[in-house]
From TrEMBL:
GO terms for molecular function: 5'-3' DNA helicase activity; ATP binding; hydrolase activity. SUPFAM superfamilies: P-loop containing nucleoside triphosphate hydrolases. Keywords: ATP-binding, Helicase, Hydrolase, Nucleotide-binding. It comes from Lichtheimia ramosa. It comes from the Eukaryota. InterPro entries: Coronavir_polyprotein_1ab, DNA2/NAM7-like_C, P-loop_NTPase, PDDEXK-like_dom_sf, SF1_C_Upf1. The lineage of its organism: Eukaryota, Fungi, Fungi incertae sedis, Mucoromycota, Mucoromycotina. Residues 1038-1225 form the DNA2/NAM7 helicase-like C-terminal domain. The keyword Hydrolase applies. This is DNA2/NAM7 helicase-like C-terminal domain-containing protein.
Amino acid sequence: MTLENVEPNDRVIPKLAVSKLAKSYHHRCEKHVKLVASKSTATSGANMGPLKEAHFQRGYQFEEQVAESFGAKLVDHTHTSPSMSKQALRDAQPGQVLYQLTFEMPSKFYQEEAGNAYQLGRFIPDFLFVHKDTSSSTGKRICIVDAKSSKAMNTSHQFQVASYAYLLGYIVKDVRNIRIDVIGGVLLPFSKEPEMFRVDLLLPKIELFYTKELPDIVQDKKIHWLFNTKCKNCEFVNICREDAYGTPGAVPYLTESRLKSLSPPEEDDISDIEDLVDHLSSLTIQEKRQRAVPSYMASEPEFSPYATAYRSQKPQFRGNPIVTLAKSNNHDIFISLVFDPMFSRVCAYVIRVYDLQSNSWCRDLECSFHVSAATRSYSRFIELDANMVQDLAKVLSSMETQKSCCTIFVSSNQVKDQVQKCCLRITTMDPADEDDAVDQDTVKKAMDCLLALFQDSKMLAIPGIAEFPADLEHKVLAPLVVDIEQLVRENVALGVPGFYSLKSMARWMTPDHEVMSDDDLYQEWHTATTDTVMDDLLMAQADMLRAIVTKYRSFASSYEDTMGKQIYCMESVPFKWPTTKHFRSNVFGRLAFFKIMECLSGCNNVRSSRLLDLTNSSSSSSDHGIKLQYMRCQVVPKSSGKPDYQHWFKAIPEGNVPIKLLTDNLSKTSMREYLLVPNDREGMMQAVQFPDLAFRNKMFIKYPINTVNVNHVSDDGLDVILDGYTASPKLEKLQYYRLYKRYVDFNTDKILDAMLQIDQRENSTFEQLVTDPNTWADTLLEDDDAMSSDARATALRLRDDFKMSPSQKDISAQIIKKRLQIVWGPPGSGKTEFLALFINWYIMHLYKKPSNGQFIIGVTAFTRHAIMNLLQRIATVRQRHASSESFTIISMEGYDKSQKTSEMIQCKANKLKSTINKHHGPVVVGGTVWDWYKVKNEWRTWQGCSMMIIDESSQLLVSDAAVAVDCLDQKQGRLIIAGDHMQLGPILHNKYPKLPASDPLLFGSIQQCLMRTEDNKAIPPQEFLLRKGTTHDFGPNTIQLKDNWRMNDELNSFFKQIYGHDLAAHYPKRILQHDWQKWKMGNVSQLEAALDPKKSISLVKVSMVDGMTEEEAEAQVIGKLVHAHLTIRMDPTNTQSSQVKPNVMIVTPHHRQRVAVERELEQWVETKNQVTVDTVEKMQGQESELVIACFAFNDVGGNKIDFLLDFKRWNVAISRARSKVIIVTTDYMLNLPKNKGHNALDLFEKRESAEGWGFVCLLQDWAKKADAVVDWSIKQ
């Protein structure tokens, strides 16, 4: 950490702009605030180059375009004096949009709120939408919306809008009938509607910032800052680069999290900037270099090469294995370009090819094009895009012709993105738009380039795409496009603070080459007087890129020669355009490519642990291989055949990751899911080079690497028994090895095959369903005609025989009217019970033998456990309501035979036809989508199910559900899906593009995909938390079960805020029962307060002590709560709770917490079989009388925020409880937005985490009102 003083001692009250403070939040930097407040540095040292000027101009243009779009509703206040702004708000009428209304904070604000520490300049919200306030007959709501010419809404935008809301709230606090809306928004290009967010959730942090944090920053000498990649585009980058010498920021690419893991000595910890600047200015250049990296870091092996680079002024090769570049190539291709922020387009480019055999440029393949600044227009930029695509395709076709191994090099990831966007723009142009006119040959070449170079999820946003890769690449290859900054960053230490720029890399690695900055190039483009100026400049830049790559290769070769170690991990193969498959339907093509993307990303996730180990990446996470020490071999005789050889290993802990955390996740199967290699560089390289994709669906074959099975893991996680080892090479006793999981996937190929088969059919049911579920749902079925109105009426009257609730009756009546019905089942609503009741009721009263002679109701779900649970429930209801119209229940069995039951027939999927033919009457068949895939392939003449029921539909992917839907009778089949999209959905390995509302949501759950508005638009992201007086509307095909068969009245009342006010608790008096006379230990007051049965939601705030980790402290509290509850618990006499279920459920977000809790509970004998401890994902669908949710964290940042504050994760964790839930947490977690630091608003950047924070706020408010907040201080 580095603390600095930027401000001189003379007290000057700074004047700050809200927009500038928003920039500080963008950079997450207190020093930025300090520099903004310092007039001298802000005016003299700030870097405001041509690129930034162009970006601002683009913003102004966008704002004007937005203003024009409002037409007569717009009231322009550009010339309204700030003194009249309050009156302008009074005069404003609902429906108007106020534009450019200027405000000024009264002096009273600074006295009351800011301690006169600063002043704010005039601020001008872009647009103020005036709405009628429904809570008052004459009131108005002012909704603040800002226009931003950015790609997406970010934290700085939200900070600015929320700042306006806070400041305007102060201004109008004494104005009757005007209030600031709790919702604000940001208007972005290419979006007709503003992106809205909850301003009220941000206001506590905003208020804290303006009343405490900002005064502290501008008045305090010492502030926190770290110079790193976040500073790249900051206007003060040049100032801070010089200040970074002697601070941790002297080491490039250092992150805040990595810095926190270091422990600087007290005397070397933090320095005052005045002292630092004065001291550095008195040093010679050589002394400055000697002390660039702080001494406590320079001694670390990870950072010592940088200290050496500073001292020697020479690049230092770090010797990390190279995974981004192959050792040998035939050709290197270089792309240089200039970007115009005004149009957000490439305005000039050059492509050059270097022949590594002849060491010369291929002049015949050189390509260039530019749009002059004077003639730039939309059509000219389209022309440039088309030319770049044609040129790139020409070069790559030449590489294919020459069978060349080649690599494309770009200077940075930003350049790589621009090349990809160029290709994407060509493929997404509307052929009907004359302005977008591009010939089909160019469009095809753009698609070819994307498939060859940029196979990622962005391609799924291309409308009408029908060509997708035919196969997955089986070899482990170096990437075709390489970002030089990333290449150098991974393996070359330069004496450059913060981050590498092209200029710094060139100065250090190719000092003979002149290089221009991006600003310089853009300025040259603006002022170019001849057509050759930009070509010459970009040609020179390409030559400089080649020189950097050449220098890098020479470093690597020298290292290999000197150290005698192999350093290149990846191979290259001659370039070939990828082969593709053509899909008739865009729906199936997209789904196939989606599954390929998921497969590739899933494989990369599995392989990441090998790369981390190989590159010696320090990490406190569990994302590494498991280090094992070989102990002995045990021969296990068999009754026949060869004996089994079991190899015993000792698991070796590394870092601060509990070894049980790693070994608990080992899968015990016979599919050879693990690789075992020596624990050295060569072994890890062997693991990295293993082609997982080639063997992803292979079993019991000879692998090119040693594969093993995990046979057994001891309870403490320290002993691991492996079998299946081939004994070559021979394992050596006491030697160390490393165990890695390999990627296994038997299903992707099945889905791809199914997509191709379904795509070949005319009028596919599934395509009709996902394209327009509303129309499909209302399709008249033949059995509707055959079923008399009297039969319907009789059946509806007989629902009472099944003791259906009013909600269940309503849904039953709706289902028989429609072909599609979505049953939305909140937690505890009994959707499985309802499905069982409905099936029995339907067969008993509405079943009519179909014309094809078979009436089959198919059942599937995300897990086989859920399928068996539903089938058993159907059997139970059938037994309760035995009738002459009996039916057969068949379960298609999997590998696990433990779930066999006499209530149903078990058969393999390929035997279903013969099994059904042995029985007469209706049949209910349950199986996974993969079972149904086999049935469809084996039973070629089958017309399909009369009805298909998909349970857990919120967890089943659209692509996987397609297999089950394809098993419906294409003309007569009904589809019923049940689930809760507000609980955890499918696990996705990728982020997918936002699609237009008119497109089906194909890249998620089948439930979310089929929920449409009346006009067949995808249901937009909605607020999970209901505002007062509102209800959820998820389209005409969705009906909610409104029963709560799980929770007591208080818990049900809490969840009404999420699921609607008509949610009804059927067991309102279900509470814990305790006898405290059984408790013989101390600490009674805390335990009584936390376990109080009359308070169904309690918050336990844990105060940590030094020397104890978060997990240990949390586990200690949970251990005492569980022990106390099980000791004093009285068995309820109420038969409502007679089912055998765990008495306590402990829900943890992380496996690390689970391990700590399990370890703590081992000392209490009574916890066995009565307590379940697992992660949120494993708890979905379960319930318990007492739930303890573990959220005791004192440091949450980066990806942790998205994970921990995901609304669905909180919803699942809390909704497992029948009688009581205890949330074990900390003050830090309960005050996340108020915590110190500019990343405190990160939780509002994504809707899911913002809603998650809203959920936490609801819990806090609820517990406070009930006096159910318990402060728990841990004593050592």
